[in-house]
Amino acid sequence: MASLGQMFKRMATDAVSAGNPLQLVEGVIQSTSPITLKLKQNDKLIIPSDFILVAQHLMSHTRTATISASSVGETMTEAGDPEHTHNIQSITLNNAQIQFASALQTGDKVMVAVIQGGQSFFIIDKF
Prior knowledge:
By secondary structure, the protein is mostly beta strands. Helices cover 11% and strands 54% of the residues. The longest helix is centred in the first third of the chain and has 14 residues, at 4-17.
């Protein structure tokens, strides 16, 4: 069995000889903490976290957004003193914090950009 370094070297040589510094390959997440990855083209090679980059949308993260809706068309029920109603026409939430909890899981199938012949593995999406 070839060493990790030999496998990286072979992938780099293949990419350079093909004139392609970037390859798209399928992979499977092997573990999440730390993240490791197995590529479909070589199921014996486990890529360690030191070589892996992950797109932000595949990790848990928070974003700030403005959320608006017009023509909501809702009427609140009678309440208060004196009783009254409110006809809600629109709503806006400024600087709302949205938590995305879309972290990768073990077994997820992912699309990986192999950069510079195997020096970096960028997980760009899952399917």
